[in-house]
């Protein structure tokens, strides 16, 4: 994060949004609908939203609403408008003004690496895409690494593999993503790793169908593919159960609740699969297993004390009656009632790209991914 | 559509498009039409929101070969 009058390194500011909460007053100058649709999240955020185009003739109207003694970060879509407003504020005598360099676009692309787990057999990193609520993972064992649900910023995984002195040999996608563009295919092409995806998800390029694999073994890792028809945007979501200790739950179970089976327009049909998954497959998994999902909804609530997004299955079950006491019909009724009509922005294009049916350049990829993640819907408890 | 004035903001993004649009339309007499050409996809939301607060009227818009055109009537 740079600024016009001061300088804050991006890495430090984006480390968690909780750091931003304490440090910055946020002045979002995007138009009101974009602001309401998607903003930097966090608990005790102090915010004002006045679109930059109301400040073209001067910033007098907001001067009294901005703190003088606390850092103010000006936020816009791509960085330009924030600079425009920040310069005026500096001219008006403020010396506490920062801008979010690259705007919400850059914010949505930042990956934060957190260590989740380490024993004598494996080490696991989580990559938190703070601005988007997406999670990806690297499981390292011996001289190899497996990547779960990679984002399109594949350089990050290659860099970590290099630092760890390992080769990326396996890549898995838990489902066909609807909210972000998968890096799976590109990372497989770059590294020569095997890329696994459910055939039922409809991808048209070459990949290894997960349907053919009950498990993936490498070095000292045994990954069990829980290939159940779990909810999601298409009926081919899976979870990965690693060494009987970690459950990469994809879009099935989140720290705060269950996945949403409504994106395919078949909520009533797919919710029955979700019930079977939770009450048959997941119910048989021990309480102390750590659940590592593909998304989160609220960083502050869902981040563990150790600094990653995840929790034990026991804790998640204890907080979520939907996972314990419901009869099938009641469960279905509740989920269908809560079915959300809001879809991730541009999800049809993103699905087409992830299936290999459509190709777009980097700039279009950025445009398509800008916006809120709406996959981690929380059901009423 | 015939415009009384055309401004080219191709290659510009964010604030500068609306800033230019505002300056241009302030120079027009009421009722006249300003045409804005832009390559920034995000401009639509911003222009629409600005028009709403400023009281001008968005008469029409369309996209041609990656260039967005907006016609705005001065209030």
From TrEMBL, chain B:
<comment type="similarity">
    <text>Belongs to the sulfur carrier protein TusA family.</text>
</comment>
<dbReference type="Pfam" id="PF01206">
    <property type="entry name" value="TusA"/>
</dbReference>
<dbReference type="InterPro" id="IPR036868">
    <property type="entry name" value="TusA-like_sf"/>
</dbReference>
<protein>
    <submittedName>
        <fullName>Sulfurtransferase TusA family protein</fullName>
    </submittedName>
</protein>
<feature type="domain" description="UPF0033">
    <location>
        <begin position="5"/>
        <end position="74"/>
    </location>
</feature>
<dbReference type="InterPro" id="IPR001455">
    <property type="entry name" value="TusA-like"/>
</dbReference>
């Amino acid at each position: 994060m740079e600024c016009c009058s001061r300088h804050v390194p991006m890495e430090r500011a984006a480390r968690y949004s909780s750091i931003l909460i304490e440090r910055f007053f946020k002045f979002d100058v995007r138009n009101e609908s974009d602001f309401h649709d998607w903003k930097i999240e966090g608990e005790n955020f102090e915010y004002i939203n006045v679109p930059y185009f109301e400040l073209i003739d001067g910033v007098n109207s907001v001067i009294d609403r901005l703190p003088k003694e606390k850092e103010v970060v000006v936020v816009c879509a791509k960085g330009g408008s924030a600079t425009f407003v920040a310069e005026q504020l500096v001219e008006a005598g403020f010396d506490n003004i920062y801008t979010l360099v690259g705007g919400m676009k850059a914010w949505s692309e930042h990956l934060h690496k957190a260590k989740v787990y380490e024993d004598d057999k494996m080490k696991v990193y989580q990559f938190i895409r703070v601005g988007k609520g997406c999670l990806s993972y690297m499981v390292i064992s011996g001289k190899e690494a497996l990547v779960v649900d990679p984002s399109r910023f594949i350089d990050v995984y290659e860099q970590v593999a290099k630092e760890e002195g390992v080769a990326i040999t396996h890549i898995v996608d838990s489902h066909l993503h609807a909210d972000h563009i998968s890096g799976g295919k590109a990372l497989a092409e770059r590294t020569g790793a095997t890329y696994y995806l459910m055939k039922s998800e409809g991808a048209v390029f070459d990949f290894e169908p997960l349907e053919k694999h009950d498990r993936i073994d490498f070095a000292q890792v045994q990954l069990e593919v829980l290939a159940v028809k779990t909810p999601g945007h298409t009926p081919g979501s899976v979870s990965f159960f690693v060494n009987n200790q970690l459950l990469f739950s994809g879009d099935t179970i989140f720290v705060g609740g269950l996945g949403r089976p409504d994106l395919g327009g078949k909520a009533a049909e797919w919710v029955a699969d979700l019930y079977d998954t939770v009450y048959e497959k997941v119910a048989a998994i021990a309480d102390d297993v750590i659940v590592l999902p593909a998304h989160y909804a609220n960083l502050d609530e869902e981040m563990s004390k150790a600094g990653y997004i995840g929790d034990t299955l026991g804790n998640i079950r204890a907080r979520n009656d939907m996972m314990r006491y419901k009869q099938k019909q009641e469960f279905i009724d509740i989920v269908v009632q809560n079915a959300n009509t809001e879809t991730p922005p541009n999800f049809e294009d993103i699905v087409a790209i992830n299936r290999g049916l459509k190709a777009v350049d980097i700039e279009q990829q950025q445009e398509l991914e800008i916006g809120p993640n709406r996959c981690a819907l929380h059901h009423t408890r | 559509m015939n415009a009384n004035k055309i401004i080219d903001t191709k290659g510009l993004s964010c604030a500068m498009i609306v800033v230019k649009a505002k300056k241009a339309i302030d120079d027009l007499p009421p009722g006249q039409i300003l045409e804005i050409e832009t390559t920034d996809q995000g401009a639509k939301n911003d222009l629409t929101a600005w028009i709403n607060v400023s009281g001008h009227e968005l008469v029409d818009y369309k996209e041609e070969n990656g260039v967005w055109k907006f016609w705005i009537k001065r209030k």
